[in-house]
Fold:
Amino acid sequence: MAADGTPLLELEGISKRFGPVQALDRVDFAVSAGEVVGLVGDNGAGKSTLVKAIAGINPPDDGAVRFEGREVRISRPQDATELGIATVYQDLALCDNLDVVSNLFLGREQVSAGPGQVSRQLDEVKMEHETADLLSNLAVTIPSLRSEVGTLSGGQRQQVAVARSLLGDPKVVMLDEPTAALGVPQTKQVLELIRRLRERNLGVVVISHNLADVFAIADRVFVLRLGRAAGEFRAEEATEEQVVAAITGVGDGRDKGERAGEEERA
Amino acid sequence: MSATGAATADEGTEGRSTTGQALRRLVQGDLSSVRVVLGLIVIAIIFQVQEERFLSAQNLTNLMLQITTIGLISVGIVYVLLLGEIDLSVGAVSGLSAAVMAVLSVNHGWNAYLAIAAAVAVGAGIGFLQGSLFSRFVVPSFVVTLAGLLAWEGALLQVLGKTGSLNINDPKITGLANTFYSDTVGWIFAAAIIAAYGAVLVLGYRKRVSAGLADGGPLPLVVRFVFLSALVIAAVAILNSDRGVPLAVMILLGFVVGMEYVAKRTTFGRHVFAVGGNAEAARRAGIRVNAVRVAVFTISGSMAAIGGVMAASRLFAVNQNSGGNELLLLAIAGPVIAGTSLFGGRGSVWTALLGALVIGSISNGMDLLSLSSAVKLMVTGGVLLLAVLVDAVARQQRQTSGRV
Structure:
């Protein structure tokens, strides 16, 4: 399944249980460098649980995680960050009252010596410079780096959030519904940005409900259904119908009861 | 970045390097200050027409002395407002801290500076305690500091004892609010302020140019420099023609500039804005949100104590009314009137000074006209209400025009 040799991130037999709900059941998942994996599934299929397990927010109960071929434990968000796994959540976690530069460097501000060398002050010039470099590398156009993030469009905000995740020089970037609630041209911008992440040889995991977007961007489509791996397709070979069938489990008689059960849980 | 208030008119700014945009940014960034300055001018005209003493050098000097306590307390309040919180205890804390200083100085013969330090430590300790309770137990700051308001007022009565008032006679303490510098020293201050401001502008601009980030040329900076220089020279000229530049005004200015620097140029200040804007985002960015909150309330308590010391120095005494009356509400109203948002994340420490000037001018002018406290309170309340409405409308505009 991996495009070239060992996958960057490899999960084996990941299980996670919340009380009576088996959110993930022995899931195997992998992403390689320079590969975009679309992670799809119905509501409650376990997409977010899987991403949160990788991000260290809800560590799995069972299963092995390998990063660059090495067995690792991700039990806190910091563990994931240190390994080089960045996550952009759907709510983006931006401060609307701060400008683009401040948001990008939030929590890792660059400082230089202040007046009289007695204190350290923000090095705005350096931060703005690096922001301009990063955004132009990603071909992201923002009217002004000093405009408040709250005044940007949804697509620009998404791009700022993605750019911010790149500051820590990650190897894997996970995006949770990056195109939800975006208009057509903005969706196009964000998909373009994801392509450039692939060109930078990052491993990219994209959660999405929108199959058209997934097919537009992903090399591989990974389907979760009721917490289990329900299919895996090479995007260029598969059709949307096949993926939809895997998502809904249509044509598989035993699923009816399970679907009803899932709706009750939801 | 800076106090935007109603300024974020649209997001359609294009191109990073046009003079037009730089000018626009200058205007937008300072618009709420401009609004307040216009308001001040209107207030001045209204009172000057009815009472010609209003703009006399003597009255303007009095005005500056009258606003130092409110201004100092407001500096701390700005930080609390930036978090989107409120500190209702600052009036009581200022009274209690001043009483501690007075008791130590008068009854126990402490050195003046030690007594002042003890007062500030009391304020800082109270702020730390309230901030810790607020962030640790996730109680609304409103409630924690309301409890504080009552408790510390009780503590003030306790500390003052039966007599209920203490006269301060240590000249080092009373000198804080009653020292005036000679004309020469005043002009030296003016020259130093102008030179320092010029140096900051030039160095900042050169750094941006060398990094290739200069946008719009030096014109906006020159405008700002000329404006500030004229303001400083006019202020010193006026103060010199009365008793001279007061020490209290220099103390207030020092705190405003210093705390504005902390707010806008340090990592801590950036984190205060971030927590006020989106605490969850700040937390996920690795900012220790609770530590920021505790630090801000500690600052608020410390500034309240410093304001209390200044009030005691001016009055030559501490009594049961110290820190009472409408001091608390005026100290909160000032920054809000001048454009610091009650909703957190927007504002600047300058609004502490500007707001105190607005409130002080109204109160001073009404005193000159011998209006009753009934009228004074109603007018001040009306001005506060107007300011809050402007803040709320600005916020709504941001929300409707902000996102596409």
Residues 96-153+164-169 of chain A form one domain. The radius of gyration of chain A is 20 Å. The first helix of chain A runs from residue 47 to 55.
